[in-house]
């Protein structure tokens, strides 16, 4: 009888490769803790077209750049250089990862049809500088 012991990293890589392209897995494995967290939510269904969200948080490289809740901007920092390309982009909707990309490669997209929201509530982003 042969027993094979696999490292957690190898198991994680195999799990991700079943669901994602190899180049995406390679990019994601540079962040093993994040990869492990995302592996747990890869099979969550998309948000329904009738889903009414209450909160959105957008993060670039694990830093919040926009926090919106119940029609009001809670925090924003749009002073990001126009040519800045974050390595990690995450959208949390009502506290759950709804979108995640690494190096421009989509890992999770549960926003197949954008949930209903009042886009006019984001208008202050056009007018106000960074506020937290």
The secondary-structure class comes to alpha+beta
Count of distinct strands? 6
Strand order of the main beta sheet, please? 3-2-1-4-5-6
Q: How many discrete structural domains?
A: 1
Q: Average pLDDT, to the nearest integer?
A: 82
Q: Strand share of the residues?
A: 25-35%
Can you walk me through this structure?
22% of the residues lie in helices and 27% in strands. The longest helix has 10 residues, at 8-17. A 6-stranded antiparallel sheet has the order 3-2-1-4-5-6. The N and C termini lie far apart (60 Å). The chain contains 4 helices and 6 strands, in the order H-H-H-E-E-E-E-E-E-H. The radius of gyration is 17 Å and the shape is globular. The protein has one domain (8-127). It has helices at 8-17, 22-28, 32-39, 124-127, and strands at 55-60, 63-69, 72-76, 88-93, 96-102, 105-109. By secondary structure, it is α+β, with helices and mostly antiparallel strands. Residues 1-6 have low confidence and may be disordered. Strand 1 (55-60) and strand 2 form a beta hairpin.
Brief summary:
The protein is 22% helix and 27% strand. The protein is of the alpha+beta class and 132 residues long. It has one domain.
Layout of strands and helices, then pairs:
Blueprint: H1 8-17, H2 22-28, H3 32-39, E1 55-60, E2 63-69, E3 72-76, E4 88-93, E5 96-102, E6 105-109, H4 124-127
Antiparallel strand pairs: 1-2, 1-4, 2-3, 4-5, 5-6
């Amino acid at each position: 009888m042969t027993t094979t012991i696999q490292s957690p990293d190898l198991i994680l890589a195999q799990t991700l490769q079943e669901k994602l392209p190899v180049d995406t897995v390679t990019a994601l494995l540079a962040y093993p803790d994040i990869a492990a967290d995302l592996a747990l939510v890869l099979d969550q269904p998309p948000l329904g077209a009738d889903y009414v969200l209450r909160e959105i948080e957008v993060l670039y490289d694990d830093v919040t750049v926009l926090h919106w809740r119940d029609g009001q901007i809670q925090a924003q920092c749009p002073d990001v250089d126009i040519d800045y390309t974050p390595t990690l982009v995450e959208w949390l909707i009502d506290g759950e990862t709804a979108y995640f990309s690494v190096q421009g490669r989509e890992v999770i997209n549960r926003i197949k049809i954008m949930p209903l929201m009042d886009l006019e509530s984001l208008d202050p982003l056009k007018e106000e500088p960074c506020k937290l």
